[in-house]
């Protein structure tokens, strides 16, 4: 392996801190989006439908971990 390839491989490896940052960003996305959907359903329907909120929570968690997590994990390191 050349030094350039080794430098790239070193930058692409994830530490525990990077993984935790990605998971925290995905979980925060889930909490904010689920709270917004719950408030919207309560406003429109006059009450919160728990199965709908649970489904939205699972989908937003998956979207946050798969979509936003890698962006946060590979963010700028200082």
Question: Can you put this structure into words, describing what you see?
Answer:
The protein is mainly alpha-helical and 78 residues long. It has 3 helices and no strands. The protein starts with a helix and ends in a 5-residue tail after the last helix. The longest helix is centred in the middle third of the chain and has 30 residues, at 16-45. The protein has one domain (14-73). The model has no long low-confidence stretch (mean pLDDT 83). Helix 2 runs antiparallel to helix 3 (50-73). The chain has helices at 3-12, 16-45, 50-73.
List the SSEs and their pairings.
Blueprint: H1 3-12, H2 16-45, H3 50-73
Q: Quick one: biggest sheet?
A: none
End-to-end separation in angstroms reads: 26 Å
Number of alpha- plus pi-helical segments: 3
Identify the overall geometry.
Answer: rod-shaped
Strand content: under 5%
Q: Mean pLDDT, nearest integer?
A: 83
Low-pLDDT stretches are none
Give me the secondary-structure category: mainly alpha
- The structural domain count equals 1
Q: Report the strand count.
A: 0
Rg: 18 Å
Helicity level: over 70%
Order of helices and strands: HHH
What's a concise summary of this model?
The protein has helices at residues 3-12, 16-45, 50-73. It is mainly alpha-helical and 78 residues long. The longest helix is centred in the middle third of the chain and has 30 residues, at 16-45.
Task: Using brief descriptors, characterize the structure shown.
78 residues, mainly alpha, 82% helix, 0% strand
């Amino acid at each position: 392996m050349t030094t350039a390839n080794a430098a790239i491989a070193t930058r692409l490896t994830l530490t525990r801190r990077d993984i935790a940052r990605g998971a925290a960003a995905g979980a925060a996305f889930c909490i904010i989006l689920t709270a917004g959907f719950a408030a919207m359903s309560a406003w429109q329907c006059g009450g919160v439908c728990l199965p709908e909120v649970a489904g939205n929570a699972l989908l937003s968690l998956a979207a946050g971990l798969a979509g936003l997590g890698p962006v946060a994990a590979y963010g700028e390191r200082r």
